[in-house]
Amino acid sequence: MTEHGSIIYVEDLTVSFDGFKALDALNFFMDYGELRLVIGPNGAGKTTLLDVICGKVKPAKGRVIFGRDSDISTYREHEIAQLGIGRKFQTPSIYLHHTVRENLELSLHQNKSAWAMLFRRLSSEDGDRVEEILDMIGLAEKPYQIAGSLSHGEKQWLEIGMVMAQEAQLLLIDEPVAGMTEDETEKTGRLLQAIAKERSVLVIEHDMQFVRQIANKVSVLHEGRLLCEGPVDEVQNNEQVMEIYLGRG
Q: Phi and psi of 189, rounded to 5°?
């Protein structure tokens, strides 16, 4: 990735739900080519941050700057997706009755009809891209398996591959290892690290062992604000983090 500087920057971001401030004048940024982990207790505002960045939730105030674009906080979800922001939710959202390969093919060009994409002949470039993603997500031996029959971890990897197929510059990934086996968790960590070599990845996670496995820089949210951020060892030993997030009495 040749770009430098911040790929996403939020300033004074505030989101309220029935008087409760899910985000409270939050300032946050991450750079091109960065793998960033965001942690925090329930209700800290982690998922709301992703919701605002991808356009699912509109802030009461504040700005969201993506790359060289102006404030995108008022853009619709599909407009933000077309700019190059892809979202993977905690629960996999895949085409269960289609094959693994078809799921990736349907994700290649989101601005076209899904059915048109499914029945048209792929270009050699598109075919190469699908093969590359299949290999990266560890499903190269299962291209024609029905997606609904995959294991939980494989479904998660497939959806990550679908976001990759959209050529997103920034991937937003919410709790990717929830419900995974230890082996699946380790493979997911390696996958995210590989993806971060060519694009930016923002991960929300609760599993601290997984965070320690892959994180270089960690941001901790608490009550809608940035509590602290830095290297994982530094954050883990932060007194406020231990008292507020890790629950030390």
A: -60, -45
Q: Print pLDDT tens along the chain (249 aa).
A: 446 689 999 999 999 998 899 999 999 999 999 999 999 988 899 999 999 999 999 999 999 999 877 799 999 999 999 899 999 876 778 999 999 999 999 888 654 555 555 556 677 888 899 999 999 999 999 999 999 999 999 999 999 999 999 888 999 999 999 889 999 999 999 999 999 998 999 999 988 899 999 998 999 999 999 999 999 999 988 888 888 765 544
In sequence order, the 6+-apart residues with CB closer than 8 A to the CB of 17 are none
What is the residue type of 87? R
pTM (2 d.p.): 0.88
